[in-house]
Design goal:
Order of helices and strands: EEHEHHEEEEHHHHH
CATH superfamily: CorA soluble domain-like
CATH class: Alpha Beta
Helix content: 55-70%
Largest sheet: 7 strands, mixed
Number of helices: 8
Strand order of the largest sheet: 2-1-3-7-6-5-4
Number of strands: 7
CATH architecture: 2-Layer Sandwich
CATH topology: Beta Polymerase, domain 2
Shape: rod-shaped
Structural class: alpha+beta
């Protein structure tokens, strides 16, 4: 089988594969999709729902309920599972690992399956779907619709784990930076990390509920082995959600510590300026008073007047320093 390429999609049809039941698959075109029958094997169709031919097929030729077709074409989805008789409609999310994208800007995939067909749709490229294609090319892919959804959920979760681990390492580095001497730029980085954790948790928490819902449904094409794996994926998601909560809390505490440290530095500088102001205020007052251009100033006609005035200023300065140290202001 030639390698399917997303760049060569046929007006919205990205992958059209028939599973051979032994971990492999063969590729179809639009014509092959039209002549496919359940006896040929499980059919997986992966669409870019913005393609005109894909939209026409999903709305008119797929034989799906109108609600299902509209759900597969919906641009906005949240993770959920809806069971219709012996079929299931899922909306899942995966981290966005496309070049130039933010991981927390999660890519949605909609999947409908009834045991004989798996129809999935997306807008932006999802690497987990490509992973399944590669496993099918190598003969180690899913052989049933149940195994397909298990592998898809597992691969989506694995990629989320990589992203969460990266975020956790960033928080570790920022905590160390705060200890060694934080900067104002670090505060922005901490805010961005908190935002990433919140956005990821926003979708991973309901995704766990969606997978648990699917595992609990009595679908004939989902065996006990598949249900067990789905529950394991849900357990991983529970752990990831807890880790995201921990990351968010750690980032918040680190940010508060950084703000406190920056405030302490600012207060220290203001204290130094206040001491300097307190020292030079009386000295400035005296020089200003004796600097007025009026007659009768003491020492104005004495050649020792300036030297005596300097000695007075030094004496005042020493008294001030003594008072500050006595009151532990220095």
């Amino acid at each position: 089988m030639t390698r399917p390429d997303e760049a060569a999609e046929q007006d919205g049809l990205i992958y059209a594969l028939v599973l051979d039941g032994a971990g492999g698959a063969r590729q179809l075109t639009w014509d092959g999709v039209a002549t496919w029958s359940p006896g040929d094997g499980v059919l997986w169709l992966h669409f870019d729902y913005t393609g005109e031919a894909a939209r026409e097929w999903l709305l008119g030729k797929a034989g799906l309920d109108e609600i299902v077709s509209e759900a597969l074409l919906s641009p906005e989805t949240r993770p959920r599972t809806t069971v219709i008789e012996d079929s299931a409609l899922l909306a899942l999310r995966g981290v966005n690992l496309n070049p130039g994208s933010d991981p927390e800007d999660m890519v949605s995939i909609r999947v409908w399956m009834d045991g004989n067909r798996v129809i999935s749709s997306r807008n932006r490229r999802l690497l987990s779907a490509g992973d399944i294609v590669q496993s099918l090319l190598a003969g180690r892919g899913p052989s049933t619709a149940g195994e397909f959804i298990v592998e898809l959920a597992d691969r989506l979760t694995e990629r989320a784990e990589e992203t969460i681990t990266d975020i956790e390492e960033q928080v570790d580095e920022m905590e160390a930076d705060v200890v060694t001497g934080g900067t104002r730029e670090l505060r922005s980085a901490l805010s961005e990390t908190r935002r990433e954790a919140i956005m990821l948790r926003r979708y991973l928490a309901p995704q766990r509920e969606a997978i648990l819902r699917l595992a609990s449904e009595k679908l004939t094409w989902l065996d006990e082995h598949d249900r067990m794996h789905l529950r394991e994926v849900a357990d991983k998601l529970i752990r990831y959600v807890e880790e995201l909560d921990s990351i968010r809390d750690r980032a918040s505490v680190t940010q508060e510590e950084l703000v406190g440290k920056l405030s302490e530095q600012l207060n220290s500088r203001m204290y130094v300026l206040s001491i300097l102001t307190a020292i030079f205020l009386p000295l400035g007052f005296m020089t200003g008073l004796l600097g007025v251009n009026l007659g009768g100033l003491p020492g104005a006609n004495s050649e020792w007047g300036f030297g005596a005035f300097i000695l007075v200023l030094i004496a005042v300065l020493l008294v001030q320093i003594w008072l500050f140290k006595k009151n532990k202001w220095l």
